[in-house]
């Protein structure tokens, strides 16, 4: 190692620790679900169970995001776009969140209104962004969640709608600051927006970069998150 | 949910808990035929005995074990799984696995841990749907018929043009296999103009380089790395182009970048060791070769050249300083492994001994070094196999260094005879000797051979044959001349060659039977031999 003399590089320490935390969390989740499957139904379901599942997913999403931000920082986030089946992609993201969605008694559905069954993007990166947004929407949603995919000109638009109270007005007004990383003080949501914007911007075609947008209203009247991919 | 009850599954993971958990998910899906393995080595054995429809393979199975990518490569190259089978790479962190993957062999899907039954079912359903859609293409691939692959791609695109993107890669591979180079080049360029992907860049770079368009290949790779800076396979391609153009320093630094991104790659480490050795950067070289040797233990790309390279780098690193105890132990180990494992390969045996002797001489044990050298020289005299030009020159230099001038000169003379028609080999030989009797030994034959080629191309085969025969009489072990003579003989003889013609043909091919199988002319030699012996 050539930079031994400079002492510990703290961001590398965090990154490797987060990597271990993620593995550890995966084992924990695995063990937990096996344990649950052996419990009688009455005990396996309950409000605590919903919290545990949701927070597991939330923690996992945050760790993935943290690793992603670290890699963005050191310019090592691998970007490998390809064609992916949109139905498979969105369906998969919802399926992996289904237990939480069920335990919160939310009805989640998705609509794909695109001529092309295939979209062109990095599945892992966009998947981690959308998964975090879905997790967030589940937290604030009343009873409904809707993911839509549509084409707008040459762009693919992924929208996540919920029927909750929506984003705080201040956040919507200052979203440009969040996505530029200027104001990250409102905790994980702000950081999430920043991460989402960076991932979106890695997708570029003929000089057009991907981007994100947040708003209130949308199809379900609550929060609306949109990801544009060129 | 699709019906999986008739399907066979293999779960590969080193954690018992994980295997149990996935097995119970599969049970809930109604799947009964589920096998498990705790290592990739076991998985490969099992795939040799049973055809699995689905393989769920963990990427990282512990240090010193094959990882999921290596297992996938082994299964594909050895045709132990059908193209119709579904291989899912299970990872803790998928972005890492992507970097470590090779562009040639990608899994059907990555699945990030943790996942639940619904997530798994949904993924599998979709993969089955896709494979069903692509079935005609996949079956043609299993049969090894690229022309049928193209036809199947055309049919699918006609059925539903929206699925055309799924065919891109199959189509490119098939065009490559059919040597339809111009078409492939246009096709890849169109892909890159529309939606650039790392694999399309790599394929175009490789194609251009193969067709001698090194400058364009270099540009493509540089453009590719700008767009996809985390894909090590692109760096490998650029390094190849640079090395071939003689820019060995830049090639080395490009490969060092690739190794930083993805150090687990036997061939990449070996290539870096070789470049660094040539650049006299012995620290980098020994480090890279050491990695190649240790990673090679569980890889199909294990190569004794890495052992010999490591030994060379260690010795040269310490020139003038003797050898410390640790280095001596390492030298004995890596050279001993070659001597033990490749007993049938005379060339390797000789080279391992010569390198060992050089090490001993450097460590101050002149007596043992001399004995070992003599034994190696004796083996050398009885060797039927030709060294490649590169190896021959390395051995000659080593012999000179060990004070075996005569043996070194013999190797050089032999090298002039075998490869004398290759100007670049002659240039390298000139660096080791300025003896005009060696350097000029092949001139007359090479000149006659050149005249022969000209006559042959002009359609004067009889004249060509006479020129080749005269050249061959001067330098009977020259590979090019021998192959040219054999070809002219067969051409003259026509449909029903006389036994005398075949006899002569066999005789001249027998003289060059020692041609290394790494030689670019090996395939031509093999085909001529079949015709000379077979008919």
How would you describe this protein?
- Chain A has 230 residues and is of the alpha+beta class.
- Chain A contains eight helices and nine strands.
- In chain A, the strands form three sheets. In chain A, strands 2-4-5-9-8 form a five-stranded mixed sheet. In chain A, strands 1-3 form a two-stranded antiparallel sheet.
- In chain A, helix 3 (47-73) packs across helix 4 (86-103) and helix 4 (86-103) packs parallel to helix 5.
- Chain A is globular, with a radius of gyration of 19 Å.
- Among the domains of chain B are: 8-133, Response regulator (Rossmann fold), CATH 3.40.50; 443-534, Tetratricopeptide repeat domain (Serine Threonine Protein Phosphatase 5, Tetratricopeptide repeat, Alpha Horseshoe).
- Chain B is built from 28 helices and five strands.
- Chain B has helices at residues 16-28, 40-49, 68-77, 94-100, 117-133, 135-143, 146-159, 164-177, 181-194, 198-210, 214-227, 232-244, 248-261, 266-278, 282-296, 304-317, 325-341, 346-363, 366-381, 389-401, 405-419, 423-432, 436-439, 443-457, 461-474, 479-493, 499-511, 522-534, and strands spanning 8-12, 33-37, 54-58, 86-91, 109-112.
- Chain B is globular, with a radius of gyration of 27 Å.
- The termini of chain B are far apart.
- The model of chain B has no long low-confidence stretch (mean pLDDT 90).
- Chain A binds chain B through residues 19, 22-23, 25-27, 29-31, 33-34, 37, 60, 64, 67-68, 71, 75-83, 85, 87-88, 91-92, 95-96, 98-99, 115-118, 120, 123-125, 205, and chain B through 15, 17-18, 20-21, 24, 92-95, 98-99, 110, 112-116, 118-119, 121-123, 126, 130, 162-163, 165-166, 195, 197-198, 228-231, 261.
């Amino acid at each position: 190692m050539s930079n031994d003399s400079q002492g510990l590089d703290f961001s590398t320490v965090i990154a490797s620790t987060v990597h271990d935390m993620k593995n550890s969390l995966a084992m924990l989740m695995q063990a937990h679900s096996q344990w649950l499957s052996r419990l009688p139904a009455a005990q396996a379901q309950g409000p605590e169970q919903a919290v545990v599942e949701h927070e597991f997913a939330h923690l996992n999403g945050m760790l993935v995001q943290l690793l992603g931000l670290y890699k963005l920082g050191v310019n090592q986030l691998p970007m490998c776009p390809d064609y992916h089946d949109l139905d498979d992609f969105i369906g998969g993201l919802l399926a992996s969140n289904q237990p939480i969605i069920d335990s919160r008694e939310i009805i989640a559905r998705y609509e794909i209104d695109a001529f092309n069954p295939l979209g062109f993007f990095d599945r892992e990166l966009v998947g981690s962004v959308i998964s975090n947004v879905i997790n967030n929407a589940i937290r604030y949603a009343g009873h409904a969640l809707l993911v839509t995919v549509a084409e707008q000109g040459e762009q693919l638009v992924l929208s996540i709608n919920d029927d909750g109270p929506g984003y705080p007005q201040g956040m919507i007004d200052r979203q440009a600051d969040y996505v530029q990383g200027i104001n990250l003080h409102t905790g994980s949501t702000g950081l999430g927006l920043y991460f989402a914007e960076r991932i979106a911007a890695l997708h570029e075609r003929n000089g057009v970069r991907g981007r994100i947008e947040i708003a209130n209203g949308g199809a379900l009247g609550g929060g609306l998150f949109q990801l544009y991919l060129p | 949910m699709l019906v999986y009850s008739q399907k066979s599954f293999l779960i590969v993971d080193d954690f018992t808990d994980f295997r149990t958990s996935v097995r119970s998910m599969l049970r809930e899906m109604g799947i009964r035929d589920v096998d498990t393995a705790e290592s990739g080595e076991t998985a490969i054995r099992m795939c040799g005995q049973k055809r699995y429809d689905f393989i769920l393979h963990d990427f990282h199975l512990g240090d010193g074990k094959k990882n999921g990518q290596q297992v996938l490569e082994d299964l594909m190259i050895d045709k132990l799984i059908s193209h119709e089978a579904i291989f899912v790479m299970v990872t803790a962190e998928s972005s890492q696995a992507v970097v470590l993957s090779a562009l040639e062999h990608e899994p059907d899907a990555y699945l990030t841990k943790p996942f639940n039954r619904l997530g798994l079912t949904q993924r599998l359903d979709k993969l089955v749907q896709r494979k069903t859609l692509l079935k005609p293409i996949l079956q043609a691939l299993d049969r090894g018929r690229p022309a049928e692959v193209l036809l199947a791609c055309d049919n699918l695109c006609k059925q539903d043009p929206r699925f055309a993107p799924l065919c891109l890669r199959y189509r490119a591979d098939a065009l490559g296999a059919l040597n339809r180079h111009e078409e492939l080049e246009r096709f890849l360029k169109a892909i890159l103009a529309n939606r650039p992907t790392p694999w399309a860049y790599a394929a175009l770079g490789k194609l251009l380089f193969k067709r001698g368009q090194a400058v364009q290949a270099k540009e493509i790779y540089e453009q590719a790395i700008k767009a996809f800076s985390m894909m090590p396979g692109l760096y490998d391609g650029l390094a190849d182009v640079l090395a071939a153009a003689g820019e060995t320093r830049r090639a080395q630094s490009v490969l060092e970048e690739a190794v930083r991104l993805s150090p687990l790659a036997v061939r990449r480490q070996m290539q870096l060791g070789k470049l660094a050795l040539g650049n006299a950067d012995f620290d980098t070289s020994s480090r890279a070769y050491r990695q190649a040797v240790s990673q090679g233990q569980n890889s199909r790309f294990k190569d004794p050249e890495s052992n010999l390279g490591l030994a060379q780098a260690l010795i040269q690193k310490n020139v003038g300083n003797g050898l410390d105890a640790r280095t001596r132990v390492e030298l004995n180990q890596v050279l001993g492994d070659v001597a033990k494992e490749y007993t049938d390969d005379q060339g390797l045996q000789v080279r391992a001994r010569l390198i060992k002797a050089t090490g001993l001489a450097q460590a101050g044990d002149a007596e043992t070094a001399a004995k070992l050298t003599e034994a190696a020289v004796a083996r050398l005299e009885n060797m039927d196999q030709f060294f490649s030009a590169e190896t021959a020159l390395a051995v000659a230099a080593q012999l000179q260094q060990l004070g075996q001038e005569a043996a070194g000169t013999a190797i050089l003379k032999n090298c002039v005879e075998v490869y004398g028609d290759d100007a670049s080999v002659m240039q390298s030989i000139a660096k080791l000797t300025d003896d005009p009797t060696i350097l000029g030994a092949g001139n007359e034959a090479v000149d006659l051979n050149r005249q022969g080629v000209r006559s042959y191309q002009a359609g004067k085969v009889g004249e060509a044959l006479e020129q080749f025969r005269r050249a061959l009489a001067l330098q009977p072990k020259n590979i090019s001349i021998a192959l040219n003579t054999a070809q002219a003989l067969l051409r003259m003889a026509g449909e029903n060659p006389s036994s005398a013609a075949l006899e002569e043909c066999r005789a001249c091919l027998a003289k060059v039977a020692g041609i290394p199988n790494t030689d670019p002319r090996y395939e031509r030699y093999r085909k001529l031999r079949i015709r000379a012996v077979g008919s």
